[in-house]
Amino acid sequence: MDLKDNLNKLYEDIEIAKEKSKFKRDVELIAVSKTHPVEMIDEFNKLGLTEFGENKVQELVSKIEDEKIKENVKNNKINFHLIGNLQTNKVKYIYNKVKLIQSLDRLKLAKEINKRANKDNICVDCLVQINIGNEESKFGINYNDTEKFIYELLDFKNINIKGLMAIAPNTDDEILLRKLFEKMNNKFEEISSKGYEGVEMKYLSMGMSHDFKLAIEEGSNMIRVGSKLFGNRNYN
Description:
Elements: H1 3-20, E1 28-32, H2 38-46, E2 51-54, H3 57-64, H4 70-74, E3 79-82, H5 91-94, E4 100-104, H6 107-120, E5 124-131, E6 141-142, H7 146-153, E7 159-166, H8 174-194, E8 199-206, H9 212-217, E9 222-225, H10 227-230
Parallel strand pairs: 1-2, 1-9, 2-3, 3-4, 4-5, 5-6, 5-7, 7-8
């Protein structure tokens, strides 16, 4: 498998989707490296990718500390995003090591992130995760509770809200996906217009390997792509 070919093909697809989109937003690519070895992260980094997404705290920490990429992580040439569900008791391991926590979805978690960040006198950048398809198997807050939740987060001075994140249902129904992505973008723009202090709607993170083109067409400016880059996951 040629990683360079995979990346170039993906860049082509991103450009085509941007052309079709009325929003014409720049799109940031998060390479989802979960279950894949650091050698592949290193190779993609040499091809110009800097942003990588991990689901599990333990795997993320072990990669950050791996000798092969440790120096580049330290110099911010490789940045990690936590894109999976974050348990409160795992916050202490990663709150000051990731560029973005993309899965903030409850007050208890916000309190823990804020407490840790406050002790270090830092601010942690987070995205609010929305369960756009109201799926029981997925994490995230209810779409209709988005603004209420963000309003509650304003009390946490060591958390910067940088946008919204959603994982759409795994379906081939393009009409449904478009509708959900459009709803997300509407919420993104609505919150942007309110100008809340400490809230910057910089990232609308939606779209994965199977639906990123639709997501970009409907306004996404951050996509999380794994299998299209790395190939199938190795769960051994």
